[in-house]
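seq as requested:
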Amino acid sequence: MKTILFNGEHRPVEAGNIRQLLTELGVQEGTVAVALNEEFVPLSQYSETPINTHDSIEIVAPMQGG
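struct tokens:
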């Protein structure tokens, strides 16, 4: 288990990559954008992008309105 900074809070996770993290959190892929250490990661790279201890991960949902 590793500890990451998730949306501003320290959180222990088991996931080894972004796709696994979304599954662990119960977040549906394609409904959010993910930034790893302040860099957005393309959806196509979620399973190839590892998560390491002390990484900062932000998950944001698109806003609608105008």
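The mean pLDDT is 93.
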